[in-house]
C-alpha cells in the first residue's frame, strides 16, 4: 500500500479475526515505532509486544475502554519512565503519539488493523508486564486483522469539515 493510501485506510479496529500476525510483520510494526521521531531524539519509550492470550485478556482490564485488547492478535504496551515533571511528561506523551501513529500506519500498510487505548490501572499493567521499577505503561496498541472488512482507503471519512479545522496564517 502507498503511504497516502495507508493514511486514508487506517481506522480504529476493535473486532479482530482469530488469526496470528506473522513474526516478520509484527517486527516491522515495532521497528516503525522504534524509528519514530522524538523530542531531542530522547526516545523515552520501550515497547512490550504481547501475544499470549492470557496476558492480552489481563491487559484488557487496565481500562474500561480496552476490552478489544483481549481479542487482538498482538498488543503493544507503550512504556515510559515515571516522572513528576509535567513538562517531561508532556514530551513523553507527544513522542509516544508519534511512535503510535507510525506503528498504526505500518500496520495499515500490511492490512493489519489497530486501535489505541490508554492505561488507567497502572498497577495491573505493571504486574502483568513485569515492568521494572520506575517504568509506567501509559498506552496500549491492539493489533489484528479486521473481522468486519479489510482496510481500504475511506472515501468519505467521518471527520469535521476541513474548512472548520484547517486555518491559514490566522484563525
Question: Could you give the topology of this structure?
Answer:
Layout: H1 3-9, H2 23-34, E1 46-50, H3 53-59, E2 74-81, H4 86-109, E3 113-118, H5 122-129, E4 135-144, H6 162-165
Antiparallel strand pairs: 1-2, 2-4, 3-4
Question: Would you kindly provide a brief summary of this structure?
Answer:
The model has no long low-confidence stretch (mean pLDDT 96). The protein has a single domain (3-165), classed as NADH Oxidase (3-Layer(aba) Sandwich), CATH 3.40.109.10. It is an alpha+beta fold.
How would you describe what is shown here?
The chain is an alpha+beta fold and 171 residues long. The protein has a single domain, classed as 3-Layer(aba) Sandwich (NADH Oxidase). It is 36% helix and 17% strand. The chain is built from 6 helices and 4 strands. It has helices at residues 3-9, 23-34, 53-59, 86-109, 122-129, 162-165, and strands spanning 46-50, 74-81, 113-118, 135-144. The chain has a 4-stranded antiparallel sheet with strand order 1-2-4-3, sandwiched between helices. It is globular, with a radius of gyration of 16 Å. The N and C termini lie far apart (35 Å). The relative contact order is 0.24. The model has no long low-confidence stretch (mean pLDDT 96).
